[in-house]
């Protein structure tokens, strides 16, 4: 199991809609994430800065990266791009964090 964490952000004023869309995550997207080895995927919001902290456990880096090539993932990115800073391909702007401590 590989632990990954990354930061993203949501546009100010879009926090409620961001949460609503994730409360109603598409079943096909959830299944695709699981099929690509993702588990324990959580996203946390710092409401003061509008930063999102995401944590996911994956089985394999290549399988995780392949999620980005699925039609359902690209559709989700398009659905979310109005709520958060995004790249031209609609993927959310994010930066990976480096693990410095883990209490197993």
Q: Given the helix and strand composition, which structural class is it?
A: alpha+beta
Task: Give the CA-CA distance, first to last residue.
Answer: 12 Å
SSE pattern: EHHEEHHE
Question: Which value, in Å, is the CA radius of gyration?
Answer: 14 Å
In terms of DSSP E residues, the strand content is 25-35%
The total count of helices amounts to 4
Shape: globular
Share of helical residues? 25-40%
Pfam families: rhaM (PF05336)
Family: Belongs to the rhamnose mutarotase family.
Catalytic activity: alpha-L-rhamnose = beta-L-rhamnose
Main location: cytoplasm
Write up what this structure looks like.
There is one protein chain. Helices cover 33% and strands 25% of the residues. It has 104 residues and is α+β, with helices and mostly antiparallel strands. A hairpin with a 4-residue loop joins strand 2 (39-46) and strand 3. The model has no long low-confidence stretch (mean pLDDT 97). It catalyses: alpha-L-rhamnose = beta-L-rhamnose. Involved in the anomeric conversion of L-rhamnose.
């Amino acid at each position: 199991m590989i632990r990954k964490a990354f930061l993203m952000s949501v546009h100010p004023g879009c926090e409620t809609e961001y949460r609503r869309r994730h409360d109603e995550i598409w079943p096909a997207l959830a299944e695709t994430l699981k099929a690509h080895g993702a588990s324990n995927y959580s996203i946390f919001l710092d409401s003061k800065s509008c930063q999102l902290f995401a944590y996911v456990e994956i089985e394999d880096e290549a399988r995780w990266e392949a999620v980005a090539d699925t039609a359902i993932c690209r559709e989700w990115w398009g659905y979310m791009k109005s709520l958060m800073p995004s790249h031209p391909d609609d993927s959310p702007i994010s930066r990976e964090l480096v693990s410095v401590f883990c209490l197993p």
